[in-house]
Amino acid sequence: MSSEKPILSVRNLQIAYQTGKNSRVVAADDISFDLYPGQSMALVGESGCGKTTLGLGLLRLLPKLGRIPQGEAIFRLKDGREVDIMKLNEKELREFRWTEAAMVFQGAMNAFNPVIKIGAHFADTLRDHSAKRLSRRDIEKRATELLHRVRLDPQRVLNSYPHELSGGMKQRALIALALALDPQVLVLDEPTTALDLLTQRGIVEQLHDLRQEFGFTMIFVTHDLGLAAEMADRVSTMYAGRIIETGNAEDIFYNPKHPYTAGLINAVLPVQGDIRNLSSIPGSPPGLDSLPKGCTFNPRCDYATGECRSGIPSLETLVERGQGLSHTVRCLHSEQVEFRGRMNADA
Ligand SMILES: Nc1ncnc2c1ncn2[C@@H]1O[C@H](COP(=O)(O)OP(=O)(O)OP(=O)(O)O)[C@@H](O)[C@H]1O
Ligand SMILES: [Mg+2]
Fold first, then answer.
1. H helix count then E strand count, the chain
2. CB-based contact 89:24 (threshold 8 Å)
3. In whole angstroms, how far apart are CA 48 and each of 99, 263, 287?
4. pLDDT confidence of residue 97
5. What spacing in Å lies between the alpha carbon of 196 and ligand 2's midpoint?
6. What's the pLDDT score for residue 272?
7. Which positions fall inside the ABC transporter domain (predicted)?
8. 314-331 pLDDT tens trace
9. Is the pLDDT confidence value at 110 over 90?
10. Residue 129 C-alpha to ligand 1 middle, in angstroms?
11. What is the mean pLDDT of residues 116-124?
């Protein structure tokens, strides 16, 4: 699965939103990770922890008040050159998006322009971003091929307005559109949220097949741990804007070493579990404008000591496996964290 060099190497990335003339909130901080070609990485964590912000920031798609004061994201282009996404100018960004990395936005319901037919969305994207000049026939051929791949009826979909499609159809059409220019990296923000269970299943299977077929590297944002367990090779847990643990899916689900990750997993109902065994994490995540001192999780943590209140722990490597496969955690007491094996359904 992995090759020698990462396709994306993020270091100390910080993303903030300007909230007033002299005020801002930092929504993602000190983000570092490596992603290798073909890997599928899940970003998990509670609502508001900064998942969407990070996904958008990586493609420089932040809303107007979003800022990236620090950090770099080195991306290896199709031609082998390495660029820092954070340093691309507008023209370079236009060439980068869609052809090198594409995003499927959170909320399929609103991601299409409601007054434009799906066919015109494909035409605009392919015309604006393709290196080659494409004829109408080329565009129609490509759109048809892509919609077939996501098991939609191309003629019907291309001639429809977004509101004429179901949520699941829209999500499939969005995925097809994101793949139009064969990007190396696909960022999907909550690809199955707000869809019914059977439709979710269909999308998951579809993504699995598309990955086999197109071979893209994937970052997907979700608060659904089951989805992460099923689709990810790598999982990063976020809490209050920071990645607090990263590992292979097995590390995270069977041997989590951050108390927050362990708490999240213990709050999920296993397939054959007893609901009485479920536990929640006491308290709620802090507001970004009033983060606790030290480790931001310390007020909710059973393991917290005085040390945890004095400094923010750095992301330490617990198991070094190289090639972007290591297990890292941001906790001073990770060796004490005991996990009851909830994902094993044996609790
Ligand atoms: N345009 C904005 N201006 C100011 N703050 C923002 C803006 N967008 C997001 N935020 C803040 O940044 C933080 C992270 O938000 P973000 O949407 O990235 O979280 P998330 O993890 O994707 O949540 P969810 O699971 O609900 O989608 C939140 O506290 C949010 O209030
Ligand atoms: Mg979000």
1. 11, 12
2. no
3. 29, 17, 9
4. 94
5. 19
6. 56
7. 10-265
8. 999 999 988 788 999 999
9. no
10. 29
11. 96
DSSP labels, 137-200: HHHHHHHHHHHHHTT--HHHHHTS-GGGS-HHHHHHHHHHHHTTT--SEEEEESTTTTS-HHHH
**SS3 sequence of 263-331:** HHHHCCCCCCCCHHHCCCCCCCCCCHHHCCCCCCCHHHCCCCCHHHHCCCCCCEEEECCCCCCCEEECC
CA of 92 from ligand 2 middle (Å) equals: 26
| Cα–Cα distance measured from residue 247 to residue 210, given in angstroms and rounded to the nearest whole number | 24
- Distance (Å, rounded) from C-alpha 301 to C-alpha 308? 10
Residue length of the chain: 347
Q: Is the CB of 19 under 6 A from ligand 1?
A: yes
The rounded Cα 158 to chain-centroid distance in angstroms is 28
Q: Is the pLDDT of residue 196 over 50?
A: yes
CB atoms within 10 A of CB 132: 7
Read off the pLDDT of residues 76-93 as tens digits, 9 standing for 90 and up: 999 999 999 999 999 999
Q: In what order do the strands lie in the sheet with 24-35?
A: 24-35, 8-18, 66-76, 82-84
Q: How far is the CA of 187 from the centre of ligand 2 (A)?
A: 12
Distance separating alpha carbons of residues 260 and 299, to the nearest angstrom: 11
| Gap between the Cα atoms of 123 and 134, Å rounded | 9
Percent of the chain with pLDDT over 70: 93
Crossing angle of helices 167-178/118-129, nearest 10°? 10
8-state DSSP, 56: H
User: Is any atom of ligand 1 closer than 6 Å to the C-beta of 223?
Assistant: yes
Nearest to 206, CA basis, from 225, 223, 186: 186
What is the H or E stretch that residue 217 is in?
strand 217-222
In the predicted model, is pLDDT for residue 1 greater than 90?
A: no
What is the arrangement of strands in the sheet containing 40-44, beginning at the earlier edge strand?
A: 101-104, 185-189, 217-222, 40-44, 234-239, 242-248, 327-329, 316-319
Q: What Å distances lie between residue 178 and 81, 111, 122, 227, 329, CA to CA?
A: 22, 12, 9, 20, 32
Ligand 1 pocket member 53 (CB < 6 A): yes
Ligand in nearest proximity to the CA of 50:
1
Q: Ligand 1 within 6 A of 20 CB? A: no
